[in-house]
Predict the structure.
Amino acid sequence: MHDAHAEHAHAPHLRHHFETVEQQREASSFGMWLFLLTEIMFFGGLFTAYLIYRNWYYPAFVVGSHQLSIFLGTFNTAVLICSSFTMAMGVHASELRKRKELVGWLVATLVLGSVFLGVKAIEYHEKWEKHHVPGLNFSVQEFTHPSDKYKEEPPLPMDMAQKTQVYFSLYFAMTGMHALHMIIGVSILLVLIAKAWAGHYTTGHMTTIENFGLYWHFVDIVWIFLFPLLYLISRHQ
Amino acid sequence: MHFISPVLWQFLVNWLTHFALFPPEASGIAPYTDALYFFLVLISLVGLAIVALLIGLFSVLYRKERNPEATQIEGSTLLEATWTIIPLALFMVTFVWGALLYFRIYNPPTNAMNIYVVGKQWMWKAEHPGGQHEINALHVPINRPVQLTMISQDVFHSFSIPAFRVKREVIPGRYTTVWFTATQTGTYHIFCTQYCGTLHSQMIGEVVAMSPDEYERWTAGSTSGASLAQNGERLFASLGCGSCHSGTADSHGPSLAQVYGNKLQMANGSFVTVDDAFLRDTILNPTMHQVAGYAPIMPTYQGQISEEGLIDLVEYIKNLNSNYRVQQTLNTSQVQTTAPAAAGTGVVKQ
Amino acid sequence: MSEHKVNEVLDTEPTHHSEHIVSPKVYGVIFAALLVGTAITVAASYANFGIFNPIVALGIACTKAVLVILFFMHVKYSSRLTKLTVAAGFFTFIVLITMSMTDYISRAWGLW
Amino acid sequence: MSTATIVKLPPQETASLPKRSYLNNEYGLKSWLLTGDHKRIAILYLISITFFFFIGGAMAGLIRLELLTPQSDLMAMDTYNKVFTMHGIIMVFLFLVPSVPATIGNFLIPIMVGAKDLAFPKINLLSWYLYIFAGCFTLAALILGGVDTGWTFTTPLSTHYLNTHVITAGLGIFIAGFSSIFTGLNFIVTIHRMRAPGMTWFRLPLFCWSNYAASILMVLGTPVLAITLVLVVLERAIGIGVFDPAKGGDPLLFQHLFWFYSHPAVYIMILPGMGVISEVISTFSRKRVFGYTAVAFSSVAIAVFGFFVWAHHMFIMGVSNYSALVFSLLTMLVAVPSAIKIFNWAATLYKGSITFETPMLYAFGFMGLFTIGGLTGVFLGSLGMDIHLTETYFIVAHFHFVMVGGMLMAFLSGIHFWWPKMTGRMYPEGLSKLAALTTFIGFNLTFFPQFIVGYLGMPRRYASYPPEFQVMNVLSTAGATVLGVGYLLPMLYLTWSLKYGKIAGSNPWQATGLEWQIQSPPLTENFVETPIVDHEAYDYEWLAHQTEHEVQTVG
């Protein structure tokens, strides 16, 4: 199996309990994947709830979805995809052991991630202004008696209008959990950039960068699903 | 015997009086449940006996003194297959048997008499169609199927009558049903078995199974004057339901006469059978159950009618055979506009 | 399954071929495909396909997710163990959804 | 009973503990609190779960005392509700889930696969700190005035109808969840990636297989509980509407999500215990476990099927009847692998050379009690039977037979079995046999009457009950007293043995696992040099050959 006693050289990043660098790399990569597995199931609960309520309260979901800005949503999707690309390039730079390039790509990822969070904050603020935050600041006024601004929406009957709370609860739970993951990611990035600048990841030991990349891409994938599910319900109506 | 110890004596007396290893079989379903139970106890005993016997036997035969050297045995596919297939077969029998029983318990016969039960922290409120209200008690006749239509006003409760071997969760926002035929007169426990807060263990009551004659007497003696349907009629009028559901050709809402039990076509093309749950839900979420051919103009009554009021309405609509009285009421209430105020018993006080 | 085979399947291949460095060109192509996918999914939501709208939207989302997983996350170049891990995650996710749905779909069947 | 024994201790006059071991290579509190050594973390876990076990046990004692009389006279009803809630939360999340994996598993899995440590020592330590945080939150909830939701946190009761510290307790469980995720993750990676040369999958001890299966459940199930609790906390704190029927939510959805974790959690709790039993039975009957592959795969089968059966907790809760049918059928399937295990263990005894040391007594106890617990599970998985039995004392008795009769017996069996390895010293055999016997008798006296009173219809979580149930409850309380003694004894004599126990030597049981081939207590790095495995698990001929060889070289 690991016929690598010969390789038992003391590589600087080899922790004492691993036999070889390769074993260490494989272990941490596999560990990261298992962690992402738990993340899938973490969001899985939310997606299940979403699926059930969308089937039950479809008209409320349509109207709720139409309250979101499709421009900001699309823009944010593009921003996240860009950040995924820059992250992938960062990993690439790390593989090629190019320190400055790596730092550059990581900074780009950081900037894009922050832009995403900024836009998200704008969207949340707008929801607050429109009284669409369930529990804290919620009113169905907009849906039962649409103001001039949203005239194109047909008014919802009262019973269905109340169900928009379920939609917005899920909207905030899902995007909130996603945003929390982004905030954690951005915080880790700050540390990584500092360490990358000091040259930690361009000497052949790049597991940390790779694993962070996996995390970042995962967060991107979650958004790839959230975007059509939350923003794009029946836009043609 | 008092020289032993008064406490112990009392305990013994208590034991002998109340000694019970088995609940009374007081419903039509109980023997069926018990039969399955005995079958399961039997296979459990056999299974346990086999395991205990094997352990005991091998412990004696192959203890170190008798058998100092172990013989290594790898395993046996035949044996593995045996103890996979035999338990599996037994479990499948259990599954089929249990499923049949489940469908028997949760599938009420069509001729069952209906009693409504509202659970709330921490009491059971039973409402008979004749208008008899009971708290933490339920009077039923024997030898007649009784269906309970149950709903909770607040949290999950669970309605359980061990002597009848029936139990069903009582859920907020949705009707659940359970049915039984009492076979033995007597008084039995009603328990709330789903933990529901501080006084959970006080949410108990008694079901009184009576002979049909006695039941008739009880019904006559404890009526509150108005049947559920009559209460429902008043509520129907006071909420102004009749103005749309008048049954005339130009009315805004569908006619409700004899609608119960029918199949209705919905606006989205599907067909729905009208039952208690459907009636309740259409009052609260009318646009989610839009009947084909009508505009979605009915307002929701969510938060405006108590569960008891909803039960009155459901019972009223169930028994509505013609729209004659609806139209009558409509005409009179247009004349006397002050009349409905008195009838608001089912309306939530705001 | 023979002992040897199980071991080979699960372990002997490394999780990650350190030799394999994906070229930036591939990243570029995937990046472009993802952006195009986003554009298509927005456009598709404005068209009326009836009940197929959510299916189209989810189809595109799945495609995009698969692209990210295969190329950005290097699963295409990874060991069977990694692939199995990803598959296990989605499998359990699907179990959660479908088994819950057995309840929600069939609640209205028949009268109980 | 037999007096023959396989125990071979070094001559006590000359024997001493090894000069260098994981226990004494560093000193001071800091060396423990910042350690990355899986063995030290296991000890930390052992101390902390014992602490919480006795808190949970005290709660159990209070429950039993209250139920001595039909009236609610010892404490007020809401106090009783808080007591059983804390008993459930502490026992499930702070004792049973981490019990075997985080202590015995943490200590042994790296050694059993021939590694120096778990794959991620720092994450292992983090997992312990998370556990302690979770414990603090739970204790805070307890001290601030308790929680009375029941450990199941049923909505809308937990979200809208109680004014106790639900959020604090919920966060505690959330954190405990991550602690167990990290443990599980560490085990999976270690078993996949850190095995010594020659240690193939089918040479792994069955303890590794069962912990591997439990780890899969931890990694895939726990996050669903985490998100569910987040939603409950959000619903309670700010009033979002995912489970609230008043806002259009479905309270049953909470049940689905909760049991999606909490049913597999039952297997998280029992599987590692089954692993212990495999090791113990094999060692004390000097035989390879009968049908090694069947036992190994049945662990995996339990883990996989475990995800398909959760709604059997909801048969009377208004799930669709068709759905109930599917879940009941799958529940019957998941019972089969457990039966396979029991029969294989029994068959292992056949033509063995059996001795009756304490771990073996506990293992016998496990087999008997788990058989009852498992079979009564079939009662509850059967749809029609479940209607009468669920939410009564029958179900309480059932899961205590599985969790206490099964898991706790296995835990004690494992602790006694590996105690010499962990500490280098033997426990006192006579006292421990007495404790095993006391536990077994006390357990049956406590929980068997509950089956009867359950069939009579006594609902669970009742502070007061009709007087005709009193006889059984008195028996049960009497049993609990005996059981309490049975649990106190090991704690006392095991502590005593730390200083006064006989020196155990490296392999007192003549067992075959890699852990027995190294000194006890082990070195920090476990192995002087990486072992090369050239034999199957439980190969007693190989062991005999080894011993012979050693004797020859020494002599």
Notes: Residues 42-231 of chain A form a domain with the Four Helix Bundle (Hemerythrin (Met), subunit A) fold (CATH 1.20.120.80).
